[in-house]
Amino acid sequence: MDEASGFGATTSSSMFRNFPLISAFVAFALAQSIKFFTTWYKERRWDPKQLVGSGGMPSSHSATVTALAAAVGFQDGFGGPLFATALVLACIV
């Protein structure tokens, strides 16, 4: 692929070093996993739908956008417009 287009090998490898993206995915996976094990602890049954379903606590949506906003703040600074945008999104969610 053409490197000027931004779709080369460097793009895919840099995606795996994207701290805010990785933070958001880890927070989502962690929240969903906690729901899965909480359901087992409370109801003594395994419910695989908890791994991908929405609703319940902890909120995977809130965890995802909060982790994204925090990671953007740590990476780019808490005074910039990118963090402000991520913070507003997190507050809405």
Automatic annotation (TrEMBL):
The keyword Transmembrane helix applies. The chain crosses the membrane at residues 20-41. It comes from the Eukaryota. Keywords: Membrane, Transmembrane, Transmembrane helix. It holds the Pfam family DUF212. InterPro entries: DUF212 (IPR003832). The keyword Transmembrane helix applies. This is Acid phosphatase/vanadium-dependent haloperoxidase-related protein.
